[in-house]
Amino acid sequence: RRLYFDTHALVCLFEENGFTTQQSEVIVSALVKIMNTNLDMIYKDMVTKVQQEIALQQVMSHIGGVKKDMIILEKSEFSALRSENEKIKLELQQIKKQVMDEITKVRADNKLNLNLEKSRVKELHAQQDRALTQTDRKIDTEVADLKTMLETHKLDNIKYLAGSVFTCLTVALGFYRLWI
């Protein structure tokens, strides 16, 4: 191990300050032991450059594997989503076609029903018009019959009245002759 200070210079410094050579060497030896112990403890927690590079390579390899897995997963998920999307599109098109067919059927049924109702209403109006015309004709016929009957009774009454007047005149003339 390298020491990053000069131990001999430290011994000389202690000797200059009143320590004996033996005392200075013991102090420096104790300092070296303390530093070595500290360094051992520090080295236990530290990783060597080779170990760090191996760990880095392992991490990079693991990241590469995860990246490949992610790409494969992304592609498979994307293709699954794409196929699901295509299925949904096809289903939507089929549903849209069915809805359009149903709308067409409903429209056709409604038009047919509307035309049937129109023709029924027209037929009903025609029947009502015929019935009204027949009723008008019957009324006209009955009125004409009543007028004819009234005229007939009128003529009969005029005949009876004329006959009665002539009879009364004849009787009155007969009495007049008899009295004259």
Automatic annotation (TrEMBL):
It comes from the Eukaryota. Its main location: mitochondrion. The chain crosses the membrane at residues 160-179. InterPro entries: CCDC90-like. Keywords: Coiled coil, Membrane, Mitochondrion, Transmembrane, Transmembrane helix. The keyword Transferase does not apply. One of its GO terms (cellular component) is mitochondrial inner membrane. The keyword Membrane applies. It is found in: Mitochondrion membrane. GO terms for biological process: calcium import into the mitochondrion; positive regulation of mitochondrial calcium ion concentration. Belongs to the CCDC90 family. This is MCUR1 regulator. It comes from Copsychus sechellarum. The gene is Mcur1.
